[in-house]
Design a protein that fits this description.
There is one protein chain. By secondary structure, this protein is mainly alpha-helical. It is 46% helix and 3% strand. The chain has one domain: Cytochrome c-like domain (Cytochrome Bc1 Complex, Chain D, domain 2). 22% of the residues are buried.
Length: 193
């Protein structure tokens, strides 16, 4: 009889937890607004599978090297697509801190360290994030908007943020030079002027 009560208690517990979650979702008490406090263990719950997926899928060796031309091209891509959320050099994006999670400012140092942006991440990790985006962060997937070469160029640029960059790239990253406009042709392809 005691065994029966234990099994019944476990079954009721298994049923009550999903029912309680459905009620919680139904009545809109889940913290989904940016100003809401995070759920307990939310960062851990999200970061563990994200890290595992990136580690499993990222390309370990970039197919291009960080040449001057590729770094300048990456700076063009960055200023067109990334700077509005991730900021320019010495000019953080004004609304990034109001995002959840806040958009990292990729030309700022990490707290007290000398690391700038994601320069301590492998380029393949940055490539994966730019290409695929990250759910529930505001980071879009760019693999349908940028070419593979453009994603690698911006990824290598960010990986080299701690190193001296070509003057043309620095000017773009300071927001001092307007990037070349992208022209949409009737065939829905893009080309630079």
């Amino acid at each position: 009889m005691n065994f029966f009560r234990i099994v019944l208690g476990i079954l009721i517990g298994i049923l009550l937890v999903p029912i309680a979650l459905v009620i919680w979702f139904w009545f809109g008490k889940v913290p989904v607004a940016v100003v809401d406090p995070p759920l307990p263990y939310e960062k851990m719950i999200v970061s563990i599978p994200l890290r595992a997926r990136i580690e499993h899928e990222m390309i370990k060796k970039p197919p291009i090297q960080p040449t001057e031309d590729d770094l300048v091209a990456g700076a063009h891509v960055y200023s067109e697509k990334c700077a509005s959320c991730h900021g320019f050099h010495a000019k953080p994006a004004s609304f990034a801190r109001f995002m959840f999670p806040p958009a990292p400012q990729l030309w700022e140092k990490h707290g007290n360290s000398a690391v700038i942006g994601v320069s301590d991440d492998p380029p393949g990790e940055t490539y994966w994030k730019v290409a695929n985006g990250i759910r529930l962060t505001g980071m879009p997937a760019y693999k349908m908007q940028l070419t593979d070469a453009e994603i690698w160029q911006v990824s290598l640029l960010l990986a080299n943020a701690n190193n001296p960059l070509p003057p043309a790239a620095v000017d773009l990253l300071r927001g001092e030079v307007a990037p070349n406009p992208i022209i949409v042709t009737p065939q829905n392809t893009t080309q630079r002027k």
